[in-house]
Structures are given as C-alpha cells and as structure tokens.
Design a protein that fits this description.
CATH architecture of one domain: Up-down Bundle
Radius of gyration: 38 Å
Structural class: alpha/beta
Strand content: 5-15%
CATH superfamily of one domain: ABC transporter type 1, transmembrane domain
CATH class of one domain: Mainly Alpha
CATH topology of one domain: ABC transporter transmembrane region fold
Largest sheet: 6 strands, mixed
Helix content: 55-70%
Order of helices and strands: HHHHHHHHHEEEHEEHEHHHHEHEEEHHH
Distance between the termini: 44 Å
Number of strands: 10
Length: about 650
C-alpha cells in the first residue's frame, strides 16, 4: 500500500495568554457542568449549594464554641450562658458536635456532587473521542497515537480536577472568606478586618505570581512526559523490529533521553512548589501574628477576653485551611488548564472532510462507480493524480496496477472520501459522493486492505465488526465463506479466542481471512481490494484469492493490485503511471500492446519462474535426501529372517 504524506509545515497554534487560560477553560467547561435537559443534575447542584451554606455557617460557629469554653474556664465567676460547672463541658461537647455535623455536611455535599462531576468528565471525554474519529486521515497521519492518548488521559483527569476543585473548594472557600471577614468586623473592629484582608490579598497575589511562573515549568514537564510516552508506545508496538535489529540498547537510550528531560522538569516543578509553599507560610504567619498581637492589646485594655484571643487564633488557623486550598485550587486549575487546553484544541480542530449542507444519504441501486476527470495532490508541489477518468460498471471488476507511487491507493482513499479531489468528481449510480453523507457512503463500500489490523479482542468480535447486529450463525457463515472456519474451530477458545494486539497472534493469511469474513458480513454493493494479497506467500495468496473471488462475485469491485497474476480475469485493467492512466484494457490486449503492463508482466513472470525453479530444486533435494537416508537405514538393518520381503526398504522410504 502506498502512503503519501504532506510535508508542508504545520501552522503553529496561537497561544492563549496565561492570564486568560483558566477563565477560558472554565467558560468552556460550564455547559458540561450545567447540562441542558438534565434537571436531576441541576437539582444535585442546588442541593450542594444548600449543604455548602449550612456547612460554612457551622464552620464559623465552631471557633465560637471554643471561645465560650475558654471563657468559662478562664473566668468561672462569669460563665457566658450556663452555670459554672456545666458551662465548659457543654461548650466542649458543642464543639465536638459541630465538628461532626460539619464533616457530615461536607461529605454529603461531595457525594451528591460526584454524579455531576463524573457526568461532565464522561460527556467531554466522549465528545473528544468522537471528534478524533471525525477528523481527517491527514490529521492522524501527522500525529503520533501515543501523544493523542496521553492528551486524552491527562485531559480527562483535568476535567474532574477543575470541576471538583471549583465547585467543592473554590466557591466554599470564597463563602468562608466573606463570613470570617464579617466576624472580625462585627466581633472586633475594622483594623482586624483590614489586617486579615491585606494578608489574603498578599497571599493570593504571591500565589498567583508564583503559579504563573511555574506554568512554563509544568508545560515543559508535560511535553517531555508526552514525548517519553510516545516513544515508549512506539517502541513496544514495534517490539519485533527492535529484536530483529538488536536495538534494545538504542531504544533504551532514546527513551532515557526523553525521560531525563522529564526528570529535570519534575525536579524544577517540585523545587518551585517548595518555594511557593514557603512564601505562603511566611505571609500567613505574619498576618496571624499581627491579628493575635492586636488581640493581646485588647485583653490588656479589657476590651477583649482570653476567649477572644483563642477565637482569633482558631479563626485564623481555620482560615489557613481554605487559604491554602485557594492556593491549591489556583495551582490545580492553572495546571489542569494546561492539560485540558490541548483537549479543547482537538475539539477546535475542524474536520477536513465534512458533510456538506443539505447532504443526502447515498442510494445505491446498481453500484456503478465512475471517476470523472479527477485530479488530486497531498501537497500542491507534488501532484498524485491528474485527470483520471474511468468507470466500473455495476457488478464488474476493474483492476488498477502500476509502479509504486503511481497513486493506486490514493484512489481507494478518494472513494471513501478520506480526501476530496482537487478537481473532478466521483459518482456512484450518477450521484456525486461529495454531496452524500459520509456514513451512507461508507456503509455501501467494503474494504479489504493489504495490512489488516485487528482489535485486541476475540475473533468473533473482529468478524462481527462488519455488522454488529449479525447473529452467531451469520458470523460462522461468513467465516466459512472466507475459508477460515476450520482454523477457528481447531484453536483453543474457537470464536472467542483473543487475537492479541493488532491481531499479532494470527498469521498474515489468517488476518486477511478475518478481514474478508467481516467484509462478507457487511455485504456491501461496492468492494475495494487494496493490494489484499501482495504481502502473502504464493500458496496463501491462492487460497485468499479464492475467498476474494467469492466476496467479489456480483459486486462492483475495484482491485488495486501489485501481483498481476491475481487480476488477469478482471473486466478491465487500468495502468497508472505518474498519476495518469497510461494504458487500459483486458489482460490479453494489454500484453499484445507490449507496453508498460507487458513489461511488468514479463518481470513478474521471470520472478515466478525463478521461484518455481527453486521450489522444484528444493523438492528434488528433499527426495534425494530421503532416498539416501532410506538406503543407509537398509544397510544398518539385520539380515532378513523371512518375516518381510526383500527390497521393502526403498519403497517404504519413498
């Protein structure tokens, strides 16, 4: 199969300004958190908000119970509300009860919101996965699968992180900030509120600046992580090739080079995190010390009690947790935004091939396929097809041959609309496929490629991939027609046997038969065989060709062939050369023209003759070896005692 790549430089994506990145990500995430038509999830969000407010009200009450217990102990003559004996104990029990209720409310809130968060994860991850399948073949050829899967994995985790930290941490923390500032303003005076406000502003300002600095480090770490993961997957997928060339050490060094960069970036990440945590601790401690110092002055002057001192300490310590969470929240949202922006960048990619407005389903009555003055290029500097016109009548077979790089496999990709022609059009029963829906087009075309890649599942699953609603009986019948049923029935597990990664547990011929079986099951009116036997040995090729003849019977068939012996019975043969149809006609007429086709046939005929000569020589050598071995065995045997006839040895050996 010919592969053509576009070597044009990829356009760099415009980077989103760091200050807008988190806001942009949250704005894009909102429709997934607040989904349309899901009143049950919205009800959960309202329930979470109610539990949030109740939990924060109790959170503020906890330091007060601590204050009342302290005042009751420090001044037993004037207990705040209760008797001298009962006061401290009651307030201590109240303190414990409030903490228990707060914990229950918070955990209930988290449990109720879990369904909302995971639904957002599922929807967005599903949309990205589906969108990846809608993108063009060119997009996937220019990117590494390992890198894409890593983006999906990190993006999926980041969705959950952003949703949960925003709703379960950021909003509750903001509410708690407001309540605590209100307490300081009402319970004490404006100076306390100003001191705490300045501390919060300094804390958040430092956190923001330090986190923005760490973003570049985090981005570099993620890039090196993706690069290392891509190299690992690429190497493991090519395990046999690595072994063929004794390249284990080379692959190890290649992987280690990527992982070494990841190591350096990880060390910088943790070092910068330590700097951030240290700065946050210093700022908070200064604010805490200032508030407590003001409280001591109030106690000395008689304006405050010992309980007020404890209240300020408990309130500030309690403030530290949400403040620290805000630092974590900001870091998590910023860092997750880096991961998820790549996922949204995938969603922003427009498919190269889309159904046109007003596209209608393709209706195939006969299956007549026609190319009308089709030209195509992957890169404008290198044309692949130029003014190609031909027709495949309904139920007939047209073969396409030509030297490597002539554009043979490009024809199949254009038929499937993986690419659009630069000019000209392709029709099926007179309908321009450019104006048909892609789903209906591909539903009417079957494909047996040269290199069949199977899913890492059972044989039955891979055959049923042709039509998922097929019954077990239909799957078995398809296997029988593809002449793979006996093989399947004699292996452990039968139809439920696992084929392994990319089908590597099966031989090339067995994989081809599975591909033929699932195409039989699909039963399309149009069939494309893209060099389906070129990678097989001669014996297997003949068996596969018999199965392909069964599939193609009565169907409009385009055969892209390398071995000319497989297409001698085609109704018409097209010879592509440098993107143009150089010759066309039946097999015999093309031989009589003594042109490109005849030259290709002669070369392949000479190769077949040489292979046949070698095969016969090997057979004769094997027979001679058996005769000589038989004669030696005869000489080594004891004299004949009459129990067997003379000269039995050589015929038996033969």
């Amino acid at each position: 199969m010919n592969f053509h790549y576009s070597f044009s430089a990829a356009k760099p994506q415009a980077k989103v300004p760091a200050r807008w990145l988190g806001r942009s990500t949250l704005r894009k995430l909102w429709p997934y958190v607040w989904p349309r038509g899901r009143s049950d999830l919205k009800l959960r969000i309202f329930a979470c908000l109610a539990l949030l407010l109740a939990g924060k009200a109790i959170t503020i009450a906890i330091p007060y119970s601590f204050k009342w217990a302290t005042d009751a102990l420090s001044n037993p003559a004037r207990p705040p509300f209760f008797s001298m004996a009962a006061g401290p104990l009651v307030f201590t029990l109240l303190y414990g009860a409030l903490r228990i209720v707060m914990a229950l409310l918070n955990q209930s809130r988290d449990a109720i919101f879990a369904a909302v968060a995971m639904h957002a994860v599922r929807r967005l991850a599903g949309e990205v996965f589906s969108h990846l399948h809608s993108l063009s073949l060119r997009y996937h050829l220019e990117r590494k699968t390992g890198g894409l899967t890593r983006i999906l994995e990190r993006g999926r985790n980041s969705i959950e992180t952003i949703v949960r930290t925003t709703v379960l941490t950021a909003i509750p923390t903001i509410v708690e900030f407001i309540l605590i500032l209100g307490v300081f303003l009402v319970q004490f005076d404006w100076r306390y509120a100003v001191a705490v406000s300045l501390m919060i502003i300094a804390y958040m300002g430092f956190t923001t600046a330090a986190t923005n600095w760490r973003i570049a480090i985090r981005r570099a770490m993620n890039e090196s992580d993706t690069d290392a993961n891509t190299k690992a997957i690429d190497s493991l997928l090519n395990f046999e090739t690595v072994k063929y060339f004794n390249a284990e050490e080379r692959e190890k060094k290649r992987y280690d080079k990527s992982i070494a960069r990841y190591e350096r970036m990880s060390v910088k990440t943790y070092t910068s995190l330590a700097f951030l945590n240290a700065g946050q601790a210093v700022i908070f401690t200064v604010g805490l010390t200032a508030a407590m110092a003001m409280s001591i002055r109030g106690i000395v002057s008689g304006a405050n009690t010992i309980g007020d001192f404890i209240l300020i300490n408990a309130m500030m310590i309690q403030l530290y947790q949400p403040l620290n969470f805000m630092g974590v929240v900001y870091r998590e949202i910023r860092q997750s935004a880096i991961d998820i922006e790549m996922m949204f960048a995938i969603l922003d990619q427009r498919p190269e091939i889309e159904d046109r407005p007003g596209a209608t389903p393709l209706h195939v009555s006969e299956g007549r396929l026609a190319f009308e003055h089709v030209s195509f290029c992957y890169d404008k500097r290198r044309p692949i097809l130029e003014d190609v016109s031909f027709e495949v009548p309904a139920g007939k077979t047209v073969a396409v041959v030509g030297p490597s790089g002539a554009g043979k496999s490009t024809l199949s990709r254009l038929i499937f609309r993986f690419y659009e022609p630069t000019s000209g059009r392709i029709t099926i029963d007179g309908q321009d496929i450019a104006f048909a829906t892609q789903a209906s087009l591909r539903a009417n075309i079957g494909m047996v490629p040269q290199d069949t890649v199977l899913f890492n599942d059972s044989i039955a699953y891979n055959i049923r991939y042709g039509r998922f609603d097929a019954t077990d009986a239909e799957v078995r019948e398809a296997a029988r027609l593809a002449r793979i049923d006996r093989f399947i029935e004699h292996i452990p597990g039968s139809y439920e046997a696992q084929v392994g990664e990319r089908g590597l547990k099966l031989s090339g011929g067995e994989k081809q038969r599975v591909a033929i079986a699932r195409t039989i099951l699909k039963a399309p009116p149009i069939l494309v065989l893209d060099e389906a036997t070129s990678a097989l040995d001669t014996f297997t090729e003949r068996e596969i060709q018999d199965a392909l003849d069964i599939v193609a019977k009565g169907r409009t068939t385009v055969v892209i062939a390398h071995r000319l012996s497989t297409i001698v019975h085609a109704d018409e043969i097209l010879v592509l050369d440098k993107g143009r149809i150089a010759e066309r006609g039946a097999h015999q007429s093309l031989l009589e023209r003594n042109g490109i086709y005849a030259a290709m046939w002669q070369r392949q005929y000479e190769v077949r003759q040489a292979e046949e000569t070698l095969r016969r020589a090997a057979i004769e050598e094997g027979i001679r070896f058996k005769i000589e071995a038989g004669a030696q065995a005869s000489e080594a045997e004891p004299p004949n005692d009459g129990s067997r006839k003379e000269n039995d040895t050589v015929p038996t050996a033969l």
